[in-house]
Amino acid sequence: MSHFSLSDIPFMTDRTVVVTGANSGIGHVTARIFAERGARVVLAVRDTDKGRAAAATMAGAVEVRRLDLADLSSVRAFAQDFTDPIDLLINNAGVSLPPLSKTTDGFELQFGTNHLGHFALSNLLLPRIRQRVVTVASLAYLVGSIDFSDLNWERKRYRANPAYAQSKLANLLFTAELQRRLSAAGSGVIATAAHPGISATNLMRADDPSLGFRIGKSLIGLVAQNADNGALPTLYAATGNIPGNSYAGPGRLMGMRGAPKLVRPAANARNVSTARRLWEVSEKLTDVTFPLATAHTSGTDPQS
Asked: Strand, helix or coil at 102?
């Protein structure tokens, strides 16, 4: 079992870290810790006012750039404007359990933001990434499935929980297929994933008036760990001495809390054919493809 803690995170001088959704919750903690370790940290956020407020609470080299993962034109603009090398990309941002909503490009909001937005961002930035792509998933993936016949909930009745679970399963399938492609390209970059267990953050939309939402949030509060502890699996996935396609999560209470360790994903996240098919569909939906077919990327890993 891992005993990873903040003291195990190396100094990050001369490293650049991009964290999506870094204005609050786990993303905020992740960005703050990397800045404290000497990294140049870019807060990639939809609301730049909130991003600047978050940056003001952090010490070190922190900057704010606008990124709306629910708008592929914003993703492309962010990637085009970011010309510097990136050591770590932390795909942290996400939405959870909204009413039926669509992204700018017409995708169901959770699938479009949590998966497709990060899929496009990672591939567009990949030629400049030197070390790792870390994607934050969730225990919700355990009950997820990929409905290729209706990814965007256009035919069946929309249900927020299964839609969220599908998007989080997609995060793990994306990580597995990205690592396969990186290895095939001879790249030194690795793809890893993490989940925070049950963490008290504002991911769930607090304006939901339903009794079920309020009861669920109260129950979560009984077992949830704070955002600082919830960020540890992400930090471990980003800096630990671990192989590609590793999945880090809390080590106690069935993965709900505790120090992070590597965990084996369930069978639905290990299906190679599903991962490849999802990748191919995602390329078509975003018009973004894997860029390293003939490239070779290498870098100094943050744990070294």
From this structure: strand
pLDDT surpasses 60 at 242: yes
Q: Are strands 86-91 and 247-252 parallel, antiparallel or unpaired?
A: unpaired
Pair of tokens at residue 234: 């992400």
CATH of the domain at 174: 3.40.50.720
Domain membership of residue 113 as a residue range: 6-286
**Catalytically active residues, by annotation:** 164
Q: Average pLDDT in the 160-170 region?
A: 97
Residue 293 lies inside a defined structural domain of this protein: no
Q: Is residue 299 part of a domain?
A: no
| Rounded alpha-carbon distances, angstroms, from residue 89 to 44, 99, 207, 234, 239 | 10, 29, 30, 11, 12
In a domain, 134, yes or no: yes
- Say if 294 falls within a structural domain: no
Q: Are strands 86-91 and 16-20 parallel, antiparallel or unpaired?
A: parallel
Alpha carbon distance 56, 154 (integer Å) = 42
Residue 293: which pLDDT band, with cuts at 50, 70 and 90? confident
Per-residue HEC secondary structure of 210-267 comes to CHHHHHHHHHHHHHCECHHHHCHHHHHHHHCCCCCCCEEEEEECCCCEEEEEECCCCH
What pLDDT is recorded for position 202? 44
CA–CA distance, 183 with 196 (Å, rounded to integer): 27
How many helices (H) and strands (E) are present in the chain, helices listed first? 10, 8
3-state DSSP assignment of residue 60: coil
199: which DSSP letter? B
